[in-house]
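We close this part of the discussion by returning to an individual protein. Part of our work consisted of pairing the sequence of a single chain with a tokenised description of its backbone. What the numbers capture is local backbone geometry rather than side-chain detail. The amino acid sequence and the backbone structure tokens for this protein are reproduced below.
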Amino acid sequence: MPTMPRTPPPSGPAQSPAKSLTPLPPRSALGPAGVRGAAPTHGAATAGDPYLPGNGNGGYLALHYDLNLDYRVTTNQLRATATVQARASMRLDRFSLDFDGLTVDRVTVDGVRALKVSQRARKLTITVVATIEAGALFEVTVRYRGAPHPLKSIWGEVGWEELDDGVLVAGQPTGSASWFPCNDHPSNKASFRIRVSCEDPYTVVANGTLIARTTRSGRTSWTYEVKEPMATYLATVLIGRYRRTDAAAAPVAQRIFFPANLAREVAVDFARLPEMISLFADRFGPYPFDAYSVVVTEDELEIPLEAHGLAIFGRNHVDGAHGSDRLIAHELAHQWFGNSLTVVRWQDIWLHEGFACYAEWLWAEAGGGPTTDASAAVHRTEIAALPRDIVVGEPGPHDMFDDRVYKRGALALHAVRRSLGDDAFFGAVRAYTRARRHGSITTEDLVEFLSVHTDSGEIRRIVDRWIYRSALPKL
């Protein structure tokens, strides 16, 4: 199951926007389409991913999101301003952002009010006063309001969700549009600044580093900054009556937010987190972000979930007896595979989930449990009893979070490891996470990199058998 009913990226934080708008000539000089000698250029209202055909947008690349959210927990009312810095990849008269469920009050492009704005089919479509030239930087500011709520999808409801006393945002894979206008596709990673204001008793946790906290008139504003490129589905806000503990400073800073009544259980269950991070850093390469945060909600959650730089668990996932170590390992591993290295297209989701599942087996072995060989054998037997009607590398949108995608993905990695040997395999994985740090990946990219790095002709054959065939190979 997913960890939540769950092209190259920008090279870094966005630059300041430059002059990008070209004034229109007099209307009498224009052809019937409104531009001299050419038809208008409209960015596509999709990223072209068949798994999420309604998501993402063409014609530009988002570079940075600046989100300013003023939220009332007691009434679930949001007033917000989102500023998106972007670069046009073509001449643009019109482009779109993913957005749904909230009311737009005003849209400007480089400070000029949009010529036309329309909202329908989960899209905010913006027509500009003057053409944006290909390659130009531009800035879109959207002021909006309303009562945010999850969006329906074939995987359930995803997005901004009210808890019994607070908020949780779970955006994978299509929920980001429930709370901010965006180019909601993993191929377009961007830096973020998230500022949330809410009532005083509550703590706000979001991605990145807390750079400011101010209190005035019974309300506190929390400002977080994400400098690395981040996929929109990994952006999150968590609001609750949380206690914070700084669990450890090494190998990276670790913070845990939790309800006071779960202090004992949390202390036990996350006591080995530094050891777990050290293990994965040894196997996968250095932890990719400045810190790692864990949030345990007062509510029970169906499943835990990962976000950029943090993971979220429900109170039902802590028992004070290490009953969720497997889940803790899984969500932590996503910091490398999913959050730092992110798939270009959703059909390659096995790259996220296969590595995270394999991390569970690595941690079990390190903790004195079954070896990875034993775990692989058990799970292959379990899969053998299931229908063989899925191709892991092309599962289709309805099955992309099927458990067989997770387990067969992990088994493929184990088969590659057995072929190469531990030193070569983990050395190649560490080299890969270093080379693709904060970037975008595909199955072909992984296969090519590992094959060249290890000078092995077997990797492509192994991946083909486990990932692109429905028949179940032997270990």
